[in-house]
Specification:
Bound molecules: zinc ion
Strand order of the largest sheet: 4-3-5-6-7-8-9-14-13-12-10-11
Strand content: 15-25%
Shape: globular
Radius of gyration: 22 Å
Structural class: alpha/beta
Number of helices: 13
Amino acid sequence: VIDGYGILFRRVLFPGWERGIRRRPTLEHLASLRRSQWFGADRLRALQSIGFERLLEHAYRNVPFYRKRMDEVGLRPEAIHGIEDLRSLPLLTREEARRSLAERSSTAPPLPEIKKTTSGTSGNPLPFAYDRGSEWFRQAVKLRGYGWAHYELGDQSLHYWGSSAAIVPPPALARAKIRLDHALKREHFVDCAVRSDASLRDLVVKIRQLRPKVLLCYAQAGAALARYVLDTGSELPGGMSVITAAERLFRRDREALTRAFGPDVFESYGSREFMLIASECDAHDGLHVSMENLIVELIVRDGGGLRAAEPGEVGEVVVTDLHNYGAPFIRYLNGDLATRVQSGRCACGRELDRLRSIEGRVSDTLRDAEGRSVSSLFFNVMFTALADKVSEFQVVQRRDGSIDLSVVPARGFDQDTLQIMRRSSAKYLAGVELRTHVVPEIPVEANGKLSMLKVER
Ligand SMILES: [Zn+2]
C-alpha cells in the first residue's frame, strides 16, 4: 500500500514549512546525522571533540556558572584539546543543576529561549532551558532514532503515554495549534495512565482503525496493552513497530510486546533535559547513543576517585549536551544507571556507542480501588504540569490502598492546586481514598535519598 499523504508530508509539506517558513535546519541536521551514523568510532570521537571545544569556549566566555567552575580548577578553554579533557571538569549534580539555572544561562546569544521543567523521579522539579539551535538538533536526533524503528515523517503514529494536557489543559489557542500540528504530522495521543479493560479495548479498536506505522509507549503501559491483546486474542494489523520510552523495558515485557505486535520492538532512552539519548536499531543489541549531539559517560565512584565503567559494569550516567549553548549541561549526573556494550561495530554496521539495561527508570506501580495497576509516572506528569505551584511531592500508598500525597508549595500554589490534584488523582486512581498534606519539606530517607514514591506492601 502506497501511503500518499506520508510521501506528500515528507517531501513537500514538512520541508516547505521547516525550510521555507520557519527557516529551521531540522532536515539538514537529519541528513547530516544520517551520514555521520556510518562514521567509524575515531571519526565520531573527533566530531565530539570539536563540539566539546566549541561548547567550553562559549561556556567560559558567556556562562557565569562555568566560567567560575573552570577558574576554580584552573582550566582555560585554550587548554582543552578534545574530549580527553572532559574528565578535568567537575560533575554537575541534579541538585546543583536545580539551583543554578540563572547562572548556567548564557548571557550572549544563543540565549535559552525554550524553558521547561522536569519532575524527575526524586520528586523535586528541575527547571532547565535551551536555545533554538539545540531544539533543531533534538528534533533531528529524534527523527533519526525513530527512523531506526522504521518510522518516517508523516507516517501515522500512536502515542500511548502520559498527558499533562489531561491534567492542566493549555489555553484554547495553544490547544488548537497543538491539534493542528498533530493532525499534520498524523500523531495521535492516548493517555496511558488509565488501564482499565474498557480503555484497553478502546485502544485496540483505535489501533485497528488507524493502522499506525508505529506505536510509541511507556514501556510498562505498552506491556499492559500487549498482555491485554494476548489474553483476549485480539487481532492487530501487521507491519507495526513499537518504540518504548520513559521506563526500562524488562525482558518479560519485551517478550509480551513481541508476541502481540511482532518482532519490531525498539527500546529508546531519553529524558526531558535532552530528549533522545539512545535508541535501538534493527540488530536489537543495545541502544545506540546520539553521539553527535551528546557525550554520554558511565562512571563508577571508586575509592574517592572516578573511573569509566567497564563493559557490562553498572555506572552512573553523565551527559554533556554539545548543542545546548543557551543553558549548558556539562557532565550532568542525571540520576540514571546504565551499562555499556563493549565498543566495536554493531551488526547493523554502526559504531555509535551502545548502552544496555538502563536502570532507575522503573516507575513503581500503584493500584486503584479495583486492584488495577496505574503507573506512578502519572504523578510525574501531573507535577510537571504543576511545576510553578508545587516544588516537591511525595506519594505513599498504604497497605489498605489509601494514598497520602504530600506537597511542598511553590510560589504559584493556591487552593485550586489541591483541587486539580484531587480531581486528577480521582480520575486515574478511581475509588482510592486520598489524603493531601501541605508540608514545609519532604523528609529524606535513611539512605539519604528523597523518595518520591513509596508503596507499602
Ligand atoms: Zn546497531
